[in-house]
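Predict the 3D structure for this chain.
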Amino acid sequence: MTSAAQVQAYVTDTHALFWYLTSSPKLSSAALQAFQEAEQGRAKIIVPVIVLAELYFLNEKLGSPLDFQAEYQKLAASRMLEFAPIDESLILLFPQLSSIVEMHDRMIVAVAYRRKAPLITKDEIIRNSGVVQVRR
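Done. Predicted structure below.
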């Protein structure tokens, strides 16, 4: 059994999670590897609750390729991930994350920054900011 000290944590953005759940070829091999590590119990995927909200709206916008309620139930029951709330302590990090201009992205980056965890994202602005480590 893997101890908590050996478990790598990753924070996911919305598109990476959506692509993982839909088995999309848009998900890079490095990102897929992070999700597979979590499936095997060697990593934990942290899902900021704003990602869950964005996932709902992205799914709706794309014609509901996912059964959102069923996927949520699976995610909530999974040991491979945890949901991370957005609270005032994360909002207070915003001045340190000013290179991330989009509000929702800044919330997601704040979770990765606080947790000192790589962020699974292809977002070029986040990657170029250098604020957090990125797993593309």
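The chain has one domain: 4-135.
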